[in-house]
Amino acid sequence: MCGSDVRQAVLAKNDDLAANLRGDLARQGVTMVNLLSSPGSGKTELLGRVLSRAVEQGIPVAALTADLATENDAERLARSGAPVQQLLTDGLCHLEARQVRTRLEGWLPADTAVLFVENVGNLVCPASYDLGETLRIALMAVTEGEDKPLKYPTAFGSAHLVVITKTDLAGPAGFDESLFHENVHQVNPGVEIVRSCARTGAGVGTLLERALAARDGAPAHRPPLAPHPHGHHHAPSAPVA
């Protein structure tokens, strides 16, 4: 079996595990949101604001955050008051569905409505792996350049929602937002783009609203590179909590 065949077999196995996990979570009333971005995009700070807003509103949310090492992000997110767990990948540059399921077993609170998964900071490998999410969000800071979607078409082309972060720095960074929109829609026509700023709280309410809409079954944008496009039936596996 050649390298490409091995990779396809690995992805196919992951897709089956992800479909089973998605089904199990749905039966428990849980919606998973997968956050993808480069390192330093401001993803953790923004997620912390979203979790805090949910806690303030009495919405039962939880978060799983992934890194190669340290539990720094889990400690930061836990300040929101939401249940948080750290998943250390021991050098692996992405999360896989089996890792998520294993980490959730025996931990995920029974009343959770939305589970946010902060993926490893990387726009390459994580984009190929379905985790069992209902909503996939690609984030990019204004300091990263308008052509990022063209450089990482799989990450942005598989997103149900795109978020611009650190918009308070758009002026100093010389960020051309109209060009960014053009580039995003070149790889993912029609996807919604949300402006956000963790410092001011801009966009936080919108992100929480989109997650809750996904939980409530609102029709989602269908990206051209949808992470779970086939909808095949998979037999259910063991509960995750």
Quick take:
The protein is α/β, with parallel strands linked by helices and 241 residues long. The chain has helices spanning 3-27, 43-56, 72-78, 97-104, 148-151, 153-157, 170-173, 177-187, 204-215, and strands at residues 31-36, 61-67, 84-88, 114-118, 135-141, 161-165, 192-195. Keywords: GTP-binding, Hydrolase, Metal-binding, Nickel, Nucleotide-binding, Zinc.
Q: Can you characterise this structure?
A:
Residues 218-241 are annotated as: Disordered. By secondary structure, the chain is α/β, with parallel strands linked by helices. Helix content is 37%, strand content 16%. It has 9 helices and 7 strands, in the order αβαβαβαββααβααβα. A 7-stranded parallel sheet has the order 3-2-4-1-5-6-7, sandwiched between helices. Strand 2, helix 3 and strand 3 form a beta-alpha-beta unit. Helix 2 packs across helix 9 (204-215). The radius of gyration is 17 Å and the shape is globular. The model is unreliable at 230-239 (pLDDT under 50).
Task: Give the helix/strand layout.
Layout: H1 3-27, E1 31-36, H2 43-56, E2 61-67, H3 72-78, E3 84-88, H4 97-104, E4 114-118, E5 135-141, H5 148-151, H6 153-157, E6 161-165, H7 170-173, H8 177-187, E7 192-195, H9 204-215
Parallel strand pairs: 1-4, 1-5, 2-3, 2-4, 5-6, 6-7
Helix pairs in contact: 2-3, 2-9
